[in-house]
Each structure stands twice: as C-alpha cells, then as structure tokens.
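[Automated response] Your request has been received and processed.

Submitted sequence:
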Amino acid sequence: MYKHNLIVLKHFRGYPSLMDSVSNDIRYARLLKLIDEFNSKNTIFFSTTTRYDDRLESISEIAESEGFKWIEYTDDESIEQILSKCEGINFGPASNSNVVIGGTNTAGCLLRNSNVCANEWIERGFDVQMCLSICADYQLDGINTVEKNNMAMAILYNFAKNRNLIEKMDICYDVTELRRYE
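Generated structure:
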C-alpha cells in the first residue's frame, strides 16, 4: 500500500481583480513547481473546476501528461466523496496520506469554512500542510494583497494555536520544504 500525497486546491483562481497580478503569478508558478517536486506515482491533485481558468487548466494538463491524477470536485462534496473518485486506490488509514492545501480565501475556505478545509482533514486524522506560496486571501478587508495575506496568516496562526492544531498542521511557504511521500 502506497503512502499518498493529496494536493487539495480550493478556488485556486479566486477573484483575480481583488488580488495583484504578481501574487497570482507567484501562486501559479509555485503550483507548477509542485509537479517537479512530487512523485506522480503517489500524488493526486484535487481541484475545484478549472473551466474558467486557462492557467490552471494548462497546469492540470501538464500534470496529467506527466502521470499525475487530477480530479475535479464541487463545493458540495465532502472529503469522503472526493476520495471515492479515486477508483482502485486504497488509501488505508488517514496517516498514510499527506494533504497539502492551497487556493484562495486562506483564513476561510482553506482553513475552516468548507467541506475540504484543513480543519476537516485534521479532524479525520490526516497530516495537513498549508503551503502559503499557493494560497491567497482576497476576502479580508485589507487595502492590498500584502495586508490581506498578513491578516490571513495571523488568523491561521491564532486558529491553530487556540485549537491545539500546531502539532497537527504544518505551515510553510516554499514548496521544496513540503513533507512528501516518495
């Protein structure tokens, strides 16, 4: 039984007009870097739709051409439902899977307010990593992307600290620092 890397992308495109283009470009570049850093034999990408996002669609095509599985899911689906889309894969216990989370609305949908947020994976016993270079927050009330993302990091830290999740969730920036199963 393999140990799996699950890359969970939630609303990766987000709302580009509410973020600066450089921050968006960084997220897409780091997502491409994940393809170089992870093993296609045991890594699966889960993403909300790529339909309106030419860059994400291109990245998914690159990943699939290199042997990665890329599975789309809807906002209504639970963790169990998206995992069931992986026909023929026995994930075994949650401890056999490493979950990397990225997308938009770091302090909300990615952390605590969706069916596939970090908190939901943690509650099911999975090892979770928030990779900040593939995350962005457009929904907070900061005046620019830097302020919004700084606010999101403070919320992320306080949420993890106040719920004793520091030992259950890693937070990193560089995709080369991500823990991964080979």
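Summary generated for your ticket: The beta strands are 4-10, 43-47, 69-72, 97-104, 127-136, 169-172. The longest strand covers residues 127-136.
If you did not submit this request, please reply to this message.
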